[in-house]
Amino acid sequence: MYETTRIMLLSDIHVCHQSWYGTTNEEQLEDLMKAVTAAKGKNDYALSLVLGDVSLDFWGWHQGGSYLWEPKVSRTAEFVERYMPSLPQPSYIIPGNHEQYGHNDWRRITGGERQQCVTAGGALFILLDSFSGDLDPSENSDGTYVPVDVAYIRRAMADKPELLVFLCAHYFDFALESAEFKALLAEEQRIKALFMGHDHLTNVSFTPEDAGRLPILRTGHFSYSCDDTDYATAYRGWRELLLHPDGSFESYYFIPRQYIPARDTYTGEHIRDEYTYRSR
Ligand SMILES: [Fe+2]
Q: Which of 102, 170, 202, 263 sits at 20 to 30 Å (Cα–Cα) from 148?
């Protein structure tokens, strides 16, 4: 049997030319590296998964995306080369709506595919590309959602019939998702949870289509909050998943020690119970 397996899931880190909360982008990334190094010193991680928006490379706002500047600057490449090696290894990355690289550029920059599968701790992680529309754009834009590839999920599950399944994507937009995907979620008891980022939130909600069977575990952000009405979501952090030998699992959002200059807010490291999910 397996020991408890711990996995780190991150998203929305946004290496770019913007800064938030009075911290420069460089300082924000240094904070992430310090927090990850401390976490690795305390816990053994089996792997890390980066669920997109490590950049704003094709950004449709302000100064535009740096990959359409002349000369091109790929902050995704900077993330992969400079920061990703410090995450728990092995580490896998899928694109968000701000990494609209075509398949060749994505492979060249990350060494992986836009969607891929990873196994650990008796579980299969299917990493999906839900912003696969309008790749290699010639003008700045913020990505095009395309319903997830259900045939890919079915094939991946058939390849590993003995494993629990976790679906991961930069985002699952249930208003735009296919009836086929919703039916799969309702039927497939091996699927245990969905992980996603994009809205920079940290909470746990439930899939609407199957009366809330599946938890949607949000991976938060290490940049800025999208919900300033909830003061605590301003804190940068990541989600952890613990897979236990009996097949149960738990997941919480980890907030490392941090200071947010613009709010003059300091916090010690903590976990909020309301953002924690435990399977039965
Ligand atoms: Fe996003």
A: 202
Residues 6+ apart with CB under 8 A from 252: 239, 240, 271, 275, 276, 277
Say if CB 51 and CB 195 are below 8 A apart.
Answer: yes
The domain of 274 spans 5-278
Q: Give residue 223 CA to ligand 1 midpoint distance, Å.
A: 11
pTM of the predicted protein model: 0.96
**Long-range CB contacts (within 8 A, 24+) of 238-242:** 238/8, 238/9, 238/10, 239/8, 239/9, 239/10, 239/195, 239/202, 240/6, 240/7, 240/8, 240/9, 241/6, 241/7, 241/9, 241/166, 241/195, 241/217, 242/4, 242/5, 242/6, 242/7
Q: How many angstroms is it from 148 CA to the middle of ligand 1?
A: 16
Ligand 1 centroid to residue 79 C-alpha, Å: 16
* Amino acid 229: pLDDT: 63
Surface-to-core class of residue 189, CB atoms within 10 Å of its CB (0-12 exposed, 13-18 middle, 19+ buried): exposed
pLDDT value at residue 221 = 95
**How much is the pLDDT for 210?**
80
CA of residue 190 to ligand 1 center, whole Å: 27
**pLDDT tops 60 at residue 272:** yes
Residues 75, 57 contacting (CB under 8 angstroms): yes
Torsion angle of alpha carbons 181, 146, 90, 120, nearest 10°?
0
CA 3 / ligand 1 centre spacing (Å): 34
- We report the CATH number of the domain holding residue 174 as 3.60.21.10
Per-residue pLDDT tens over the stretch 87-142: 999 999 999 999 999 999 999 999 999 999 999 999 999 999 999 999 999 999 99
